[in-house]
Design brief:
By secondary structure, the chain is an alpha/beta fold. It folds into two domains: 33-109 and 215-240, D-Maltodextrin-Binding Protein, domain 2; 111-214, Periplasmic binding protein-like II (D-Maltodextrin-Binding Protein, domain 2). The protein is 37% helix and 26% strand. The chain is built from seven helices and nine strands; from the N terminus they run αβααβαβββαβαβββα. Helix 5 links the parallel strand 5 and strand 6 (166-171). The longest helix has 28 residues, at 5-32. The protein starts with a helix and ends with a helix.
């Protein structure tokens, strides 16, 4: 007994359908264990330049290589909104005093601030500068439109140096600030990890008497239902804690 042409076609289609069902069932079981699915991760620039993002992704992939990761650069206020409405699942953010309902964070890195300026700036020859040496400078302020951005850090610098900072340019992110600083438009106060951003003509220097620190935090939903997202947060936090120990 042999199959007709139509029978052969039906048999092939039926076999393919069975394989698809088996594959869907397998993926479903993996997803239930957090071993499949999609995770959307938001991050601020320092999350990338500090190595936090790549470390988390590398650690997670060791045991969850079938989980698809989508990374999205965005500033902290937008990340918190995106977490609330489900557009992202995890964020690397700058800590805030208040968070949207249902969003929680854990500080995972602390870093000092540096002064970034054009390499031809007279202060660049000194290596390390004092806060008061910056009194006459024009400053480029990242995230100025966010009330909890780095305006506070600049105000603290003024207090340390005994002057009122002159705000010349207000920008939305550190990369924009560094680009302006490298071109001689002013001095930017940036996290230490931004030294890893390769920008021609920029010089970074420590501020000897300015101990103000900034933090990076891991943000996620308190009642997260995705096993993959929960695993990502757990493994990422453990990896970052291990790095700090």
């Amino acid at each position: 007994m042999s199959l007709t042409d139509a029978g052969h076609l039906f048999h092939a289609e039926a076999a393919a359908a069975l394989r698809h069902i088996e594959r869907a069932d397998q993926v479903g079981r993996l997803a239930a264990r957090g071993l499949a699915g999609v995770i959307r991760v938001g991050y601020v620039a320092s999350g990338a330049s500090s190595g936090l993002l790549s470390m988390m992704l590398s650690e997670f992939r060791k045991s969850h290589e079938m989980v698809r990761i989508e990374v999205v650069p965005m500033e902290t206020p937008r990340q918190l909104e995106a977490l609330s409405d489900g557009q992202i699942d995890v964020g690397i953010v700058r800590p805030r005093r208040l968070y949207p309902a249902g969003v929680i964070t854990k500080v995972v890195q602390t870093e000092r601030l540096l002064a970034a300026m054009t390499a031809s700036h007279p202060l660049a020859r000194r290596g390390t500068v004092s806060a008061c040496a910056l009194a006459d400078q024009s400053f480029i302020v990242p995230q100025f439109t966010d009330e909890e951005g780095f305006g506070d850090a600049l105000a603290a610098l003024g207090t340390a140096g005994g002057f009122t900072p002159h705000l010349e340019y207000r920008v939305q992110d550190f990369i924009s600030a560094i680009c302006l600083a490298s071109a001689g438009y002013g001095v930017a106060i940036v996290p230490e990890s931004m030294q890893n951003f390769s920008q021609p003509g920029i010089f970074y220097t420590q501020i000897a008497d300015f101990k103000f620190s900034v933090h990076l935090a891991l943000a996620h939903r308190r009642r997260e239902i995705s096993p993959a997202v929960r695993a990502f947060v757990q493994l990422g936090t453990e990896a970052l804690n291990g790095r700090g120990s």
